[in-house]
Amino acid sequence: MRRFTTLLSIVTLIAMLSPARASSQAAAKPDSPAFSSVPELEKGYRLMYEQKFPEAREVLQAWAAENPTEPFGQVSVAASYLFEEFYLQQVLTSDYFLNDKRFLGGITGTPNPGRMKGFADATGKARTLANQHLKKHPRDPEALFVLALSAGMQSDADSMLMKKHYDALKQLKEANSSAELLLKEHPDIYDIYVAPGIAYYVIGSLSPSARFVLWFGGIHGDKQLGMSQVQKTAENGNYLKPFAQILLALSARREKQDALAQKNLKELTEEFPGNSVYEAEYAKAMSRPIPAAMSPVNDSPQ
Predict the structure, then answer these.
(1) Selected residue with higher pLDDT from 231 and 107
(2) How many angstroms separate the Cα of 280 from the Cα of each of 1, 10, 132, 293?
(3) How far apart are CA 115 and CA 269, in angstroms?
(4) pLDDT tens track for 216-251
């Protein structure tokens, strides 16, 4: 059942990949906070990557309050809750990625109820605002982007953290539909590629029998293509670039592509010197001892 749980999450993410190929001619990049550099948003995301999640949320919530009609603010708040849970569950580590049972079977234990409620509230607000935008502009890029991210993150939370299998399936159609409309006209929105990319990679890592089940349902895995999709975000992404870099580095370690892993981890440690996960993973990739100060942090009630 845990294996099935992870596959539901993967299916939701991988469904976003096919639209990325739909158009060879991209429209001009939209003028939106989601696709540009906003100082307050950059600060919030940077704090997230420095593992300062409460501080990040405070910044992102303040920006969202000052820009109450922008759905990207609320989906960013939601991301802060999910990223924090991933951090505390040690999902973005080699201990997880290099252990097939964990990598293909999902987390153990239960997530923090307070974080999950905060996540659900923020995604709900993001979707409401995005749908309001779409009523006025049916192909509004930021709204479609936010709906795709919200559905993808909700599916991850439902399947990987909450074990709500059928709820996760419900998110599949929404994520696919929103991403298809967005990437058809804007394939240069690089932040969207990381999710389907890692999904494509994970599916390619499954056993032949598991891949056959997904293939029968029209879903195909390809580790090389998946890593190339993640690399698009790692090289050209905006707010999700560091997230893609750690995923690319950990995938590269699985594939014994040491130089690629070391390059991305080195860049992450230089950009975020206070991130104990990046520092520990770089030490592991370089076969160096891991200082005690880099040991995982235990969760605490929120």
Answers:
(1) 231
(2) 32, 27, 43, 9
(3) 27
(4) 555 556 788 889 988 999 999 999 999 999 999 999
Q: Output the DSSP codes for 63-105.
A: HHHHSTT-HHHHHHHHHHHHHHHHHHTT-SSHHHHT-HHHHHH
- Which domains does the chain show, CATH number per domain? 2-20+36-288 (1.25.40.10)
Phi-psi region of 112 (alpha: psi -120 to 50; beta: other; left: phi over 0): beta
Residue closest to 268 by CA, chosen among 254, 252, 255, 289: 252
Helix crossing, 39-49 with 71-88: angle to 10°? 10
Q: Which two tokens stand for residue 249?
A: 């580095």
pLDDT on residue 28: 67
Angle at 81 between CA 77 and CA 87, to 5 degrees: 135
